[in-house]
Amino acid sequence: MSTCPTKVAVLGLDGVPYTLLKLLFADRVMPHLARLAHSGAFLRMHTVLPPVSSTAWASFMTGANPGRHGIFGFTDLKPNERALHLPSFDDIRCPVIWQRLPQKRSVVVNLPFTFPARPLNGMLIAGFVAPDLERSVYPESLLPWLVSRNYRIDIDSVRGRQDRRALIADLFETLHIREEVILTLMEHEPWDLFIGVITGTDRLHHFFFDAYEDRAHPYHEDFVNYYRRLDAFIGRFVDRLGSSTRLMVLSDHGFTRLKTQVYLNHILKTMGHLAFTTPAPVSPEDIHPGSRAFAMEPTRVYLNCRDRFRNGSLSASEAIEFRGKLRSELAAIGFEDVGIFDPPEGSDSNERVFGDVLVKEDVYEGELLPQAPDLVVIPKPGYDVKAGLNPPGATMTDIFTGMHTHDDAFLIVDDPGTAQRLPEPYITDVAPLILEVLGEVGLEPV
């Protein structure tokens, strides 16, 4: 690559952990990506909390943390209400990369949390969550071509839960379609910034993360072959780059093996801090006004304050005192307290369930801090923290075998000097790297 790049190509691999890539490289499953990693900078990267794609990709595309861009999860709360709001691209409160570079032409394919598609100097095909393809595409003239290619935004996870073999077929077919669209647009459209994201990796890991290291697993070969196919695509992607293009490959969060799910609202209810107005709650609107705290997916805890929620139960002073008390209570919960009697190897039954419980000031900063969750729970590896309103117990297993992590994403840049500049990168560091190449030298994250 040129020492003075004038264009940037970004390839996102959703949910691919740094530690898994190291294994895949050692096993020679991904020679093209391994070559890039070894010749450039290959770094373990931290991402945002909670480590879900909506918050993480929003942080990537803005260079800002949720306290500035305003996306704290796939679900949020309506202002002043304990009522559900489903945020979209329209709710991002900071300009994204291509909005900060309106004079540059950008092509964006399958980047999560860009629905509904909005006009830009270039082209955009939104990634999940996107309820329909028509409103996911800009300009509209792209739509007939995508339909002719049988383009879809995501795999059919609902069917995949029932039919694992169909899920594997869907993963490969969707990857093939995504490859064709990305490579065609790369080759035939002018661009200064190209962003393409593969989300099938995340789906593969949720269902089959146990398959790679277990060679006897019925889907081991499928797991390996998916990554071989992905690596071949990466090789074709790189072949289409000119000598003046900076290349970055990254994930939005990491992954690890899932043992069980731990349900925060059940724990809060058992502690006496949460009650509902109905025996079968289905939304935050069913939370009793007298409750002191409740959780939102996946790891966010909100205090029921009067200065935040209509009919809240806590005054500002009571909330300050209660937050410290609740943080200590959650941090002290042991495995046996939630019915886990086979703790991690090397642990005893009295060891704490959660890796940490943080107050919002330790996690977020910015003018939207008042909208942030009051506490954020960090899971221990293998114990996925959830916030369903009406689970049967404190813990529950699922068909999934993998869970997200915040400290094992990766970043590859075809500039070895990046390792010296950013030895411990955070996902918000990527946007400034892009902006620097494309003309905004030294620009700080918003």
Q: Helical content, roughly? A: 25-40%
CATH architectural group of the largest domain: 3-Layer(aba) Sandwich
Q: What is the typical, i.e. mean, pLDDT?
A: 93
The largest β sheet comes out as:
8 strands, mixed
Count of helical regions: 15
Task: Please give the domain count.
Answer: 2
What is the gyration radius calculated from CA atoms? 22 Å
What is the spatial order of strands in the main beta sheet?
2-19-9-1-8-5-6-7
User: For this structure, what is the CATH class of the largest domain?
Assistant: Alpha Beta
Share of residues in strands: 15-25%
CATH topology of the largest domain: Alkaline Phosphatase, subunit A
Which structural category do the helix and sheet elements fall into? alpha/beta
| Cα separation of the termini | 29 Å
Q: Shape, please? A: globular
| E-strand count | 19
* Unreliable residue stretches: 441-446
Say which CATH homologous superfamily of the largest domain is assigned. Answer: Alkaline Phosphatase, subunit A
Which features characterize this protein?
446 residues, alpha/beta, Alkaline Phosphatase, subunit A, eight-stranded mixed sheet, four-stranded antiparallel sheet, 15 helices, 19 strands, 19% strand, disordered C terminus
Quick recap of the structure?
By secondary structure, this protein is α/β, with parallel strands linked by helices. The protein contains 15 helices and 19 strands. 32% of the residues lie in helices and 19% in strands.
Q: What's the SSE blueprint?
A:
Blueprint: E1 7-13, H1 18-26, H2 31-39, E2 41-45, H3 53-62, H4 66-69, E3 76-77, E4 84-85, H5 97-100, E5 106-111, E6 122-126, E7 137-138, H6 143-148, H7 157-162, H8 164-188, E8 193-198, H9 200-208, H10 220-239, E9 245-250, E10 254-257, E11 260-263, H11 264-271, E12 293-296, E13 300-303, H12 316-332, E14 354-359, H13 360-363, E15 375-379, E16 383-386, E17 395-396, E18 402-405, E19 409-413, H14 418-421, H15 430-437
Parallel strand pairs: 1-8, 1-9, 5-6, 5-8, 11-16
Antiparallel strand pairs: 2-19, 3-4, 6-7, 9-19, 10-18, 11-17, 12-13, 13-15, 14-15
